[in-house]
Amino acid sequence: MNQGNFIISTDPHDDLADAGPDAETRAFIVDAAHHGRRLDHALAALVPEFSRNYLQQLIEAGAVTINRIAATRSSQKVKAGDEGTVELKPTPQSQAFKPEAMDLDVVHEDEHLLVVNKPAGLVVHPAPGNWSGTLLNGLLARDPLASTLPRAGIVHRLDKDTSGLMVVARTRAAMDLLVAMIAARDVSRQYVALAHRTWGGTITRHVDAPIGRDPRNRLRMAVVETGKPAQTDFELLQDAEEGCWVRATLHTGRTHQIRVHMAHIGHPLVADEVYGGTPAASMKRQALHAFRLGFVHPVTGMELEFHAPLPPDIQHALGIWGLRYNDLEWLTRHAP
């Protein structure tokens, strides 16, 4: 079988005699595409379900051979035609890349991509503390071809407790094009959010403030001078005594960008306790919803635009604060 430009043996007789019951030994032959690469980089292409750090540990432990000799240096260069083996044992990370059937709200699907309306509470891809039950697991179960793509075709993400629209690639060509489009800011993404404090001032506000790791708390992001450029446009939709209902348009895609920028201008999102918000209006998760997604289809060239209705918890919160909500048409009529 060919995987990651390696020739991989699936013959059970190739397994090492001393491999434990939970171990798997894969035999491989380095092809021309990986000639001259570092051993750890080449192995990462062979077994993408394991991190390069873990593979480096295997090399140091003597679990990798090249031409029947144990390899001990990750920086060792491999050559086309080299034959090797790697003995693998399951880790939470490797076990994470498994199909798990789940109901996904797919609002568009064609042979190249699909658009998903992600519910709040669903993690996008496996990470420490969430090695299963993620969108990636659901995509692998829904489409066997997803296993041939990095991250099952996921090209951008939403935070666990943010609901709304995401585009996912179904082919490698579409994935590469979508990644390039997002980097070039050719994908339009709009959100609505419920935040603390009345808005005040001008209805629209452009925030241009770099975002990076918070030097005082590495588990969160912050506006910092050394951060990456980040721009967000905000527009007030309606004010209430308790807070404000706003629309946000992303021009960059930094981690937690809307949440950080809203906190930076003094309006942390309702229930976003990481960035200074507190539970209110019955909301128990950050009140943020990706309601609109627009882009030119990377393969067909057709202009596409999708809208996701507000989830019930945000609708309920708006009602508690006496804010206007008249279905999604009200939002789309006012969208730029």
Task: Give a description of the structure.
35% of the residues are buried. Strand 12 (211-214) and strand 13 (217-223) form a beta hairpin. The chain contains eight helices and 17 strands. Helix 1 (39-46) crosses helix 2. The radius of gyration is 23 Å and the shape is elongated. It has helices at residues 39-46, 52-60, 92-96, 135-142, 172-183, 257-264, 312-320, 328-334, and strands spanning 2-3, 6-9, 24-30, 64-66, 69-70, 83-88, 106-109, 113-118, 163-169, 188-196, 204-208, 211-214, 217-223, 231-239, 243-250, 288-296, 303-307. The strands form three sheets. Strands 7, 8, 9, 10, 11, 14, 15, 16 and 17 form a nine-stranded mixed β-sheet that branches. Strands 1-2-3-6-4-5 form a six-stranded antiparallel β-sheet. The chain has a two-stranded antiparallel sheet with strand order 12-13.
